[in-house]
Design brief:
The structure holds two protein chains of two kinds. Chain A is of the alpha/beta class. Chain A is built from seven helices and six strands, in the order βαββαβαβαβααα. Chain A has helices at residues 19-28, 74-77, 92-108, 132-142, 157-167, 174-178, 193-198; strands at 3-13, 43-49, 54-61, 82-88, 114-120, 145-148. Chain A has a six-stranded mixed β-sheet, with helices on both faces. The longest helix of chain A has 17 residues, at 92-108. Chain B has two domains: 4-78 and 230-303 and 373-413, FAD/NAD(P)-binding domain, CATH 3.50.50; 102-225 and 315-362, Orthogonal Bundle (Guanine Nucleotide Dissociation Inhibitor, domain 1), CATH 1.10.405.10. In chain B, helix 1 (14-25) packs parallel to helix 9 and helix 1 (14-25) crosses helix 13 (399-413). The chains are: A alpha/beta, B alpha/beta. Chain A: It is found in: Cell membrane.
């Protein structure tokens, strides 16, 4: 019997390191050289198939630019199962920013969150400022997954999401850990306003 | 900060965040600032550390209260009426995808020194001690009349004109006792006082229908509540705004509302920087604090106060069947006060306006009291492009917040707010 697990994945990292491009490559296999700052679609889903029977659906939250002035809401981190923290291999300062975001995650997010550090723009290796050794060493110290990607060529993009999917705890339903969003079936507990709105006209009896 | 914006929004309370989100969706270029380093303004939900920092700056939270992150204490407690206007905005803007809701377990009403559940099923109504047997029959006829009312069918009117006749006339027609009127007016129509009785019955009819249709949607009570506190609401609308291009700056002090020689809005100054925009929308606190820098220009007036108390209890509220979340309504006549009291009580979060209600709570572990001024703007903003939202009132729900959103929107945009369904984003 096939099983689908759903997880919330949040993206973090300095502006312009390619967070949205990475997601666009992963979800739609597209790349846009002149992509403007994130507008309009900051909530995407993509499914990774691990083996014939198990699929992992990522509910991907982009920052929508709220990271620019340190204005991400606590809601962003809430119940996140995994995070991809992105830096730009051609900008040494972006790795420093990534370290800050990882500290923020360790402070705000669930302690069991799976974090992947991701050096993007690997196609621009000629302008590299961050060595693989430096980033890898830091990732090992902090217990993070690490790899380099290029949203432009697609290199390493699917791999990092698949690696995250493999590392997520598929034995226990995620809902039992977070008490809410996204059980193995992807169904939410509690009140579904959208569903109720549809059937609203049916309930008009007075119960008094 | 050297760009020019269409609208600068000051404060991240719910009213401002809904407006910011809707304006961004409409294509306006929005800059949204808050002096605090957290979202929500006066309506934020705080964890224990933040709560004690605000009210007991010399005292850390007692360890007996447990973990910081298990708390989200609403500074302005309210519930969402399930079929109310806020729900419509939540669904139409699709921000529901960022939120989870729980149902409030029950609504209770105070009568003759004790509390009883507002019946939510026919079975509860039959057993309810709120009315005697004959009164129950009269009330049943009253509710059947309201439910059956059709504007264009005079046969359903039973000689009543909802627009001309007062609520008093309607109560008299069905012979309802004063205690039942209290219950209907305060626990169902959710009035804060009894002024409605002598006015046209129409608004009361609308409110009772809203209450009963909300009750019918989930059964236990007509209220829902965001699982992680009311502070999630402004955050979700801020995210909507950001997704449509809104720029967010928290922890940004606002030193001056800059105007030209005619008093028309030019921009907002923070430190040495001034950001220009065509219009500014903000909560009243940004226009009280900045008066001095602007030569004492009076922009808001205080026209009342709200007293709120947050109490931490170590037990469920007595007489509520150990409900994890309840609202208790105390009609004004039951405590000989001018205004009724609403308790919004969910888990560790308690609120009160008047002292008789505190006695219902049993032993109180900790109590934080605030007295908040209610401000209204002295101008409509249509001339000077300065639009000031209202302070959060004493009502137990968000209907007046949405009224304010609609009112400000109309003045800012020059047209009525029409909710459009947000385009569904592509799912891969």
């Amino acid at each position: 019997m096939s099983k689908q697990f759903q997880f919330k994945l949040v993206l973090l990292g300095e502006s312009a390191v390619g967070k949205s491009s990475l997601v666009l490559r992963f979800v739609k296999d597209q790349f846009d050289d002149y992509r403007e700052s994130t507008i309009g679609a900051a909530f995407l889903t993509q499914t990774v198939t691990l083996d014939g029977q198990t699929t992992v659906k990522f509910e991907i939250w982009d920052t929508a630019g709220q990271e620019r002035y340190k204005s991400l809401a606590p809601m962003y981190y809430r119940n996140a199962h995994c995070a991809v923290v992105v830096y730009d291999i051609t900008q040494a300062s972006s790795l420093e920013k990534a370290r800050n975001w990882i500290r923020e995650l360790q402070r705000q997010a669930d302690p069991s969150i799976v974090i992947a550090l991701c050096g993007n723009k690997a196609d621009l290796a000629a302008r590299r400022q961050v060595t693989q050794e430096e980033a890898q060493k830091y990732a090992e110290e902090e217990g993070l997954m690490w790899s380099e990607t290029s949203a432009k060529t697609g290199e390493g993009v699917a791999d990092i999401f698949t690696a995250i999917a493999k590392k997520l705890p598929l034995t226990a339903p995620p809902s039992s850990r977070t008490g809410g969003r996204g059980g193995p079936s992807g169904a939410r507990q509690g009140v579904d306003l959208n569903r109720q709105a549809a059937s609203q006209n049916g309930g008009e009896a007075c119960n008094c | 900060m050297d760009e020019e914006y269409d609208v600068i929004v000051l404060g991240t309370g719910l009213t401002e965040c809904i407006l910011s989100g809707l304006l961004s969706v409409e294509g306006k270029k929005v800059l949204h600032m808050d002096r605090n380093d957290y979202y929500g303004g006066d309506g934020a939900s705080l964890n224990l550390t933040q709560l004690y920092r605000k009210f007991r700056s010399d005292q850390p939270p007692p360890t007996a209260l447990g973990r910081d992150r298990d708390y989200a204490v609403d500074l302005i407690p309210k519930f969402i009426i399930t079929s109310g206007e806020l729900t419509k905005i939540l669904v139409h803007t699709d921000v529901t995808r960022y939120l989870e809701f729980k149902q409030i377990a029950g609504s209770f009403v105070y009568r003759d020194g004790k509390i009883s559940k507002v019946p939510s099923t026919e079975m509860e109504a039959v057993k309810s001690p709120l009315m005697g047997l004959f009164e129950k029959r009269r009330a049943k006829k009253f509710f059947e009349f309201l439910q059956g009312w059709k504007d264009d069918d005079p046969a359903t009117h039973q000689g009543i004109d909802l627009d001309k006749d007062s609520m008093e006339t309607v109560y008299e027609k069905f012979g309802l006792e004063p205690g039942t009127q209290d219950f209907i007016g305060h626990a169902m129509a959710l009035y804060l006082d009894d002024d409605y009785i002598t006015k046209s019955a129409r608004p009361t009819y609308d409110r009772i229908i809203l209450y009963t249709s909300s009750m019918a949607r989930y059964g236990k009570s007509p209220y829902i509540y965001p699982l992680y506190g009311l502070g999630e609401l402004p955050q979700s609308f801020a995210r909507l705004s950001a997704i449509y291009g809104g720029t967010y700056m928290l922890d940004k002090p606002v030193h001056e509302i800059v105007t030209d020689q005619n008093g028309i809005f030019v921009g907002v100054r923070s430190g040495d920087e001034t950001v220009k925009a065509k219009q500014v929308i903000g909560d009243p606190s940004y226009f009280v604090a900045s008066q001095e820098a602007e030569g004492g220009k009076l922009r808001v007036l205080e026209d009342g106060k709200v007293i709120r108390a947050i109490c931490i209890l170590k037990h469920p509220i007595p007489g509520t069947d150990d409900s994890d979340s309840v609202q208790i309504i105390i009609p004004q006549n039951q405590v000989n006060r001018r205004n009724g009291t609403h308790y919004l009580i969910h888990e560790t979060i308690r609120s009160r306006k008047l002292s008789p209600g505190l006695q219902l709570l049993g032993p109180i572990f900790e109590k934080f009291v605030t007295v908040s001024p209610l401000y209204t703007s002295v101008s409509t903003g249509e001339v000077d492009n300065i639009f000031i939202t209202r302070s959060y009132d004493a009502t137990s729900h968000f209907e007046t917040v949405v009224e304010d959103v609609q009112d400000v929107w109309k003045r800012v945009m020059g047209k009525d707010l029409v909710l459009k369904k947000r385009e569904v984003e592509a799912e891969a």
